[in-house]
Design goal:
By secondary structure, this protein is mostly helical. The chain has a single domain (8-120), classed as Orthogonal Bundle (Helix Hairpins). The chain has four helices and no strands. The longest helix has 33 residues, at 88-120. It is flat.
């Protein structure tokens, strides 16, 4: 593969990734809610002047939840496309994907509690 085609294909892939992210933000309420929560947590990070390590953990948790939420949405869309009518197996698959989001969100909440507990409840 020549270098020009490689760069062109990478740029095309980047375009599709941005397009997909925009579609998620524009159409999916769960992603919109996660973004609002993320903005609030980021604002809290600036307010409490958290450390660089805390920023890394917080941003990793935010990215994890939003990414898993996007994958969950893709699984649901694919399942609905493959079998538009109710089916127990499709419901099971969707529940598993939603469970992955739940795990990521619980871990994100625990990370937030570990980071912000001392800032909020410090004994000064």
């Amino acid at each position: 593969m020549n270098e020009k085609n490689f760069i062109k294909s990478r740029l095309k892939g980047f375009y599709y990734a941005i397009k997909g992210a925009w579609m998620l933000l524009k159409t999916e309420q769960s992603i919109q809610v996660q973004m609002v929560v993320s903005i609030g947590v980021i604002a809290a990070g600036f307010y409490f002047d958290i450390t660089a390590t805390e920023w890394i953990l917080q941003l990793f948790a935010i990215g994890l939840v939003i990414s898993i939420e996007g994958i969950n949405t893709a699984v649901e869309e694919l399942a609905n496309f493959v079998h538009p009518d109710f089916h127990n197996k499709i419901g099971h698959i969707k529940d598993i994907a939603a469970g992955a989001v739940f795990f990521a969100a619980i871990i994100a909440v625990i990370i937030a509690m570990i980071i912000y507990w001392p800032y909020i409840f410090q004994n000064n």
